[in-house]
């Protein structure tokens, strides 16, 4: 009864404010819908040829070198840069794009994976009567709807729960969420609703029950960010844009304008990072879309240009999927330091984040241990005490640099711009900076409008609203069934291929090797617990993957989901890529190439994906916090393997014990298992190292240790095989 009264009171409190907002929202919605209808019609009339076969990277580089002059050269292959390239090429502008690393290698692959308008931005807009911020949310909600439409295989609506622990918060949050629905207008994904405490716990059983009043559920979008970025870039390539990753801009090219006598940017000197070869790419207009590296390109234009980027680091962690329901996220609107934390299901795991701390600009941001622990602490505050949130459950962690910017044309150069900025320098360099993932398309449209006007290009209006992205055209929710029926793929693998490649999944399936088993017929997995298969590595090369990191981080998301699983998959990925890219022909010694690839990928996992932070939970300095009885129990377990009382065990010792109970484990796998615990890397696990491991397991610093689980299982098996003593059998005389 109390809950019903609160809900009724909430409705009465909010009705006046909602009515006040309704008129403004509906008028804006009418204007937006009229523009959208016109744009969709224009998108359907894109006259450019859509290539069924992607040009190879070598062919793209040849086009960059041989073309006399492009209309547009975009620097940066993130979401915004790729969006600019797609917008330009579909306006019939001759377009080029270069990226010094891989597509989506920076911030665009390290987001919260949400496509959203920003609930907290709307809260600020209402509290401060800020029309500009309101319109920013309105634009983002329109772009959210468009992105869900043009890439349905890579994105989907996601319900997000906002738990309420104080009665007075119920009307406050309900009003804010309902306003969020109203601002979205006809593009509202699904209407938000209020839940009782009982229903909230039914849908999200991991929630902390104590003092829970109820919850509010609203809807936003979720996507596979790196694959979405890649889809935008590949779509641009299919429409004729010359795009090349691992192509660095060395410096900008300039020429004197005969009319004004001023130097104007007319292209860039580029370097192929794979071969080291340098070449010029000339263009009427150069667009700087380099995210956190905005200032480095601006200073290539003019060393006197002030810095406008104020980078902020956002750390996310990945924990097992059992921490959250499969189809419900969680929002913590007010953490201990005032930030917002999301707790979301993604790729059958759970993402938690983000932090927001000032940082330096770097191409290799590293998640810090204090940030990981901050997120874990906040997660514990919202989950039931029955759910033990352990540090050892962090399977991966990453840091992304958000490029907050100040407007160089503003009088107050110290104030951070809440939205994005488009700036044109005296030499004609067009810079797009700031903004958010969701609004990449509208940012690109605004940038190209400014570029066309400034450089008097012949491009028409933007054609990208409603323009389907790579893989979207032939996708359907039941497409995976055809993959199972036609190719004999596992259901989980077929669902993964359909949601990753859309209509292009059939091309990946055709490349899959026969397993030699009764089922599945094709599709050898890279690692057993994830649905990634070997043919994806082959297809990744067609999608311009040049390194092993490209495959584990962006073509698949294995490195973002589980660093240990990614590490185990590396040798096979390197082997497949090495044959496909003919690394042996590029370097004199094959093993040198393989060793370099393995080392680079391991460094990436170790530093950028949180493997270092994870492995440091067990170090030589780890404290052994065990009781005497626990020490005795674990010593007894250890000596079942160390039968000669050497004080250490090797793979040979473990193999002998396993053979005695008829268990077979591959020697390489066994070496990997021991290596996880071998702190001093001397090829053996000493008793002290084993006790440190068990202490860390008990404290929750380490989880899923294969050696700990293996030794416990073997001990139990050996005890079951021991002969029953005479006195226990009831025999004797």
Automatic annotation (TrEMBL):
Transmembrane segments: none
Pathway where this protein functions: Polyol metabolism; glycerol degradation
Cofactors required: FAD
Catalytic activities: a quinone + sn-glycerol 3-phosphate = dihydroxyacetone phosphate + a quinol
Gene3D superfamilies the record matches: Alpha-glycerophosphate oxidase, cap domain (1.10.8.870), D-Amino Acid Oxidase, subunit A, domain 2 (3.30.9.10), EF-hand (1.10.238.10), FAD/NAD(P)-binding domain (3.50.50.60)
Function: Calcium-responsive mitochondrial glycerol-3-phosphate dehydrogenase which seems to be a key component of the pancreatic beta-cell glucose-sensing device.
Family designation: Belongs to the FAD-dependent glycerol-3-phosphate dehydrogenase family.
Protein name from the UniProt record: Glycerol-3-phosphate dehydrogenase, mitochondrial
Record organism: Scleropages formosus
């Amino acid at each position: 009864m109390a809950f019903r009264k609160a809900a009724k009171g909430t409705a009465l409190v909010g009705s006046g404010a909602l009515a006040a907002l309704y008129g403004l929202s509906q008028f804006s919605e009418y204007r937006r819908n009229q523009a959208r209808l016109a744009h969709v019609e224009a998108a359907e009339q894109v006259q450019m040829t859509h290539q069924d076969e992607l040009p190879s990277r070598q062919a793209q580089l040849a086009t960059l070198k041989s073309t006399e002059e492009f209309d547009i050269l975009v620097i940066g292959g993130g979401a915004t840069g790729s969006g600019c390239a797609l917008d330009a090429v579909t306006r019939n502008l001759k377009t080029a794009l270069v990226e010094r690393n891989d597509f989506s290698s920076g911030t665009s692959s390290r987001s919260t994976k949400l496509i959203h308008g920003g609930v907290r931005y709307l809260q600020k807009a209402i509290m401060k009567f800020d029309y500009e911020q309101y319109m920013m949310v309105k634009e983002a909600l329109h772009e959210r709807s468009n992105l869900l439409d043009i890439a349905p295989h890579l994105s989907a609506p996601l319900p997000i729960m906002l738990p309420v622990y104080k009665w007075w918060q119920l009307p406050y949050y309900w009003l804010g969420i309902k306003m969020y629905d109203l601002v979205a207008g006809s593009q509202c994904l699904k209407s938000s609703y209020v839940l009782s405490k009982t229903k909230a716990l039914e849908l999200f059983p991991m929630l902390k029950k104590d003092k829970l009043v109820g919850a509010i559920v609203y809807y936003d979008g979720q996507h596979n960010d790196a694959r979405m970025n890649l889809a935008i870039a590949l779509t641009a390539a299919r429409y004729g844009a010359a795009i090349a990753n691992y192509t660095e801009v060395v410096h900008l090219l300039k020429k004197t304008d005969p009319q004004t006598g001023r130097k104007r940017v007319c292209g860039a000197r580029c370097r192929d990072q794979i071969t080291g070869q340098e070449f010029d790419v000339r263009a009427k207009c150069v667009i700087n879309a380099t995210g956190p590296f905005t200032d480095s390109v601006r200073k290539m234009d003019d060393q006197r240009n002030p810095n406008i980027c104020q980078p902020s680091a956002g750390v996310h962690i990945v924990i097992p999927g059992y921490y959250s329901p499969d189809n419900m996220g969680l929002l913590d609107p007010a953490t201990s330091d005032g930030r917002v934390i999301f707790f979301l299901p993604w790729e059958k795991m759970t993402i938690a984040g983000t932090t927001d701390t000032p940082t330096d600009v770097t191409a290799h941001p590293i998640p810090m241990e204090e940030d990981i622990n901050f997120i874990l602490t906040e997660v514990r505050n919202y989950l039931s005490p029955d759910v033990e949130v352990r540090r050892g459950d962090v399977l991966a962690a990453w840091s992304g640099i958000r490029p907050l910017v100040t407007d160089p044309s503003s009088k107050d150069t110290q104030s951070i711009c809440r939205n994005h900025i488009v700036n044109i320098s005296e030499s004609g360099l067009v810079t797009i900076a700031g903004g958010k993932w969701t609004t990449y398309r509208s940012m690109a449209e605004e940038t190209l409008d400014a570029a066309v006007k400034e450089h008097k290009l012949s491009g028409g209006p933007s054609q990208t609203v409603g323009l389907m992205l790579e893989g979207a055209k032939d996708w359907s929710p039941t497409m995976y069934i055809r993959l199972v029926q036609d190719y004999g793929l596992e259901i989980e693998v077929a669902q993964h291929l359909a949601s990753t490649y859309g209509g292009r999944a059939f091309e990946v399936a055709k490349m899959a090797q026969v397993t030699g088993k009764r089922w599945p017929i094709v599709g050898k997995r890279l690692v057993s617990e994830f649905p990634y298969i070997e043919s994806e590595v082959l297809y990744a090369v067609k999608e311009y993957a040049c390194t092993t990191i490209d495959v584990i981080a962006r073509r698949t998301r294995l490195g973002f989901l589980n660093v240990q699983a990614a590490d185990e998959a590396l040798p096979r990925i390197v082997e497949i890529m090495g044959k496909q890219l003919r690394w042996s022909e590029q370097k004199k010694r094959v093993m040198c190439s393989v060793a370099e690839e393995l080392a680079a990928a391991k460094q990436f996992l170790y530093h950028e994906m949180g493997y270092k932070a994870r492995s440091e939970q067990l170090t030589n300095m780890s404290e052994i916090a065990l009781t005497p009885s626990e020490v005795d129990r674990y010593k007894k377990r250890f000596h079942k393997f160390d039968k000669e009382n050497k004080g250490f065990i090797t793979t040979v010792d473990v193999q002998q014990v396993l053979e005695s109970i008829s268990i077979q484990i591959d020697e390489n796998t066994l070496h990997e298992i021991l290596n996880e615990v071998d702190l001093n890397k001397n090829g053996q696990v000493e008793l002290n190292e084993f006790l440190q491991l068990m202490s860390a397991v008990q404290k929750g610093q380490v989880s899923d240790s294969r050696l700990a689980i293996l030794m416990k299982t073997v001990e139990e098996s050996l005890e079951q095989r021991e002969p029953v003593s005479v006195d226990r059998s009831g025999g004797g005389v």
